[in-house]
Amino acid sequence: MASGDESPIFEDDESPPDSLVKMTDLVAVWDVALSDGVHRIEFEHGTTSGKRVVYVDGKEEIRKEWMFKLVGKETFCVGAAKTKATINIDAVSGFAYEYTLEINGKSLKKYMENRSKTTSTWVLHLDGEDLRVVLEKDTMDVWCNGKKMETAGEFVDDGTETHFSVGNHDCYIKAVSSGKRREGIIHTLIVDNREIPEILE
């Protein structure tokens, strides 16, 4: 730089990079497990500027600037099934705020408790790739890494089998009665004749 040339490298030396500005207004982060994968929801709330920004998996879904009302709701969709999500912004005292996430009209906790009853999830490593397989028990839809799988149902002696393929691997989910009313039906994932343990999300 020549002497006497006072032009800064950036137009405004006082402004921090965008990534730092983003972090100062980031007030809440949630990870939500849906059939098509685990989605990260981030919420920015500028309490002095009134800014509200919602990101789903790093992609901006909602941006509102200069909101005079600092409390309220922001509603948006998450995942392949366009699941309805709402962030509630409530004042707790003075300039302190509480942020809660609802999925399909239920608190995140209630939604996840209900989801554990209506889905089964397995995680496995196959051909150098991590796979997440989800069975929706009410529809018998099978998802693998965010894609709804083509399936074929078959009745067998002790229950049903829902067949699908992942790459060159034969997979099926076996559904058998536990014989106990409280336990209901037990779902088991079989890949290449090997049982995969279920995980709890």
Question: How does this model look, in words?
Answer:
The chain is mostly beta strands and 201 residues long. The chain has two domains: 26-104, Lipocalin; 116-199, Lipocalin. The protein is built from two helices and 18 strands. It has helices at 18-25, 108-118; strands at residues 26-34, 37-45, 52-56, 59-64, 72-78, 83-93, 96-103, 106-107, 119-126, 129-136, 141-144, 147-148, 152-156, 159-166, 169-177, 185-191, 194-196, 198-199. The chain has a five-stranded antiparallel β-sheet with strand order 12-11-10-9-18. Strand 10 (129-136) and strand 11 (141-144) form a beta hairpin. The longest helix has 11 residues, at 108-118. It is elongated. Mean pLDDT is 86; it is low at 1-22. Keywords: Apoptosis, Cytoplasm. Its main location: cytoplasm. InterPro entries: FAIM1 (IPR010695), FAIM1_dom_sf (IPR038513). It is found in: Cytoplasm. This is Fas apoptotic inhibitory molecule 1.
